[in-house]
Amino acid sequence: MIGCELNILGTSRCSSLSPHRRRLRVGSFCGLILLLPVVAAQAATVTKISAGVYHSIFVRSDGSLWGMGGDPHGQLGDGFSVAGTNAPGQIATSNVTAISAGDFHSLFVKSDGSLWGMGADFLNQLGLGTTNDVLIPELIVSNEVTLIAAGAVHSLFLTFHPLSGPGSYWAMGYNASGQLGDGTTNNRALPEQVLSNLSGNVFSVIAAGEQHSLLIKPDGSLWVTGWNGYGQLGDGTTTNHHLPELIVASNVTAIAAGGDHSLFVKSDGSLWTMGNDAVGELGDGTNGTIHTTPELIVSNNVTAVAAGGAHSLFLKSDGSLWGMGRNVYGQLGDGTTNNRSLPVLIVSNNVTAVTAGFFHSLFIKSDGSLWAMGFNQSGQLGDGTTNNRVTPVQVVPPPPQILSVNLAGVSFEMSFLSVSSQSYTVQANLDLTTTNWFACTNVSGNGLIMPVTVPVSNGVPQEFFRVREP
To answer: Are 313 and 305 in contact (CB under 8 A)?
Structure first.
């Protein structure tokens, strides 16, 4: 590894340093080195993920929205269809706060509360009043939207109004099984306010499955509506419900709705499942059965859940990722294609978020990196291939470290620990100009580093360290 030193006269010298400790020193004053604060900041990390049947979408910490996979109905919002992409492509540049991927459509919310959608609308799942595919993001609701959930061909969202408060529940799209919860089986071409919060029907969390929906009230009660052919509503029957029905009276904190099954977590960290257990997706050690009432699977420490077509994923408080159910494409990421009827450990630590598509899965690690596994024929894993993955593959690496340094002195010293050959970026303070920077880069290949004056693109990684002459 190479160290670079630049004095106040603008000349430079270089030395080899340990790869585990690098020091960049600029200037001197009466023989003293004045040390100024060095603040390590992060570039844009992956913060939110959602997976459909053949596509995936995610948000970075800068609010940008990205997508990959199949695009037959325009669900990637890139103005094209059919072709798709096997690598992440940007959909929106900023201000995205929430996302949800349905089977062939995508929804997202911006920081101003506006709701946008793209992709298939053949059963009015976008709520635009048409049945045409939408190839670029189109505005659905202009403000007040806080939370969204995209099912197979129906969509749900919650709003917050300054006067009436939180939890107004809206729905649109396919409703043959009562999944919209409006008391009918009529499809809705436009967003419909299903339950008014003025009547006490306030919801705080929503989830949409193939043809059923789950809802949590602020008091922790769990409500369900829609198709119940496999007992996925958990009410002890296989009868569909066209209005939300109370299943659990309190303490529910997280929910997930899959193809024909449902999962929820209680405040004590216990995991419960119900519905179709065709290939072990309920995680109780059986398969080929149905369960019409909730059954306990894990007694504690579960923090988040995700339900796919016929597989289930959950996180524990130690950051470990677990899965069960269908695994024919490697969507459980355990290195096999064997279905699992009991939870199997996938990643032992540092997982912070997870989502399940129909045949694939995505998760985020604490360093902001994005990982994927499972079916990849349409490029939905985003790894640049169309190869299925039976173990997790890194799709978006952790971002390069940004070093924000106050250069308002005659000298400073920066120490880097465990530096690799990745790009690093020095981010200028706002009170500094972006001219007269010196770049240290190995241009000769013989271990010498030459100073080069370059224009600065603030926040853009480059393969050298940059410092400005004091």
So the answer is: yes
* Residue 376 main-chain phi, psi, to 5 deg: -140, 20
Q: State yes or no: pLDDT of 400 exceeds 90.
A: no
Which residues on neighbouring strands pair with residue 256, listed in sequence order? 263
User: What are the boundaries of each domain within the chain?
Assistant: 2-43+420-468, 46-396
Q: Residue 263: beta bridge partners?
A: 256, 273
Residue type, 338: N
CATH 3.40.50.2300 is right for the domain spanning 46-396: no
Query: Which string of b and e fits 427-460 if b means at least 16 CB within 10 Å?
Result: bbeeebeeeebbbbbeeeeeeebebeeeebeeee
Burial of 93 (0-12, 13-18, 19+ CB in 10 A): exposed
In terms of C-beta density within 10 A (0-12 exposed, 13-18 middle, 19 or more buried), how is residue 248 classed? Answer: middle
> Residues 16-39: pLDDT tens digits?
223 232 333 333 222 222 223 333
Task: Judge contact between 167 and 203, C-beta under 8 A.
Answer: yes
Distances (CA, A) of 172 to 155, 180, 431: 5, 7, 50
b/e burial code for range 112-141 (CB count within 10 A of at least 16 → b): eebbbbbbbbbbbbbbbeeeebbbebeebb
Query: 3-class SS at 197?
Result: helix
One-letter-per-residue 3-state SS of 81-117? CCCCEEEEEEEECCCEEEEEECCCEEEEEECCCCEEE
Tell me the percentage of the chain whose pLDDT exceeds 70.
74
Structure token digits, residue 256: 């997930």
Does residue 413 contact residue 388 with C-beta atoms inside 8 Å?
no
Place of tokens 């540049």: 93
* pLDDT of amino acid 195: 80
C-beta of residue 206 within 8 angstroms of C-beta of residue 213:
yes
Mean pLDDT of 301-314: 98
Residue 413: exposed, middle, or buried by beta-carbon count in 10 A (0-12, 13-18, 19+)?
A: middle
| Whole-angstrom distance, CA of residue 370 vs CA of residue 356 | 14
Residue-wise over 216-230: b if at least 16 C-beta within 10 A, else e? bbeebbbbbbbbbbb
For residues 436-451, give the mean pLDDT: 37
pLDDT of residue 200: 65
Q: Tens digits of per-residue pLDDT, 347-366?
A: 999 999 999 999 999 999 99
Which of 10-24, 148-162, 451-465 is least confident? 10-24
Q: How far apart are CA 470 and CA 408, in angstroms?
A: 7
Judging by DSSP bridges, how do beta strands 145-150 and 154-161 pair with one another? Answer: antiparallel
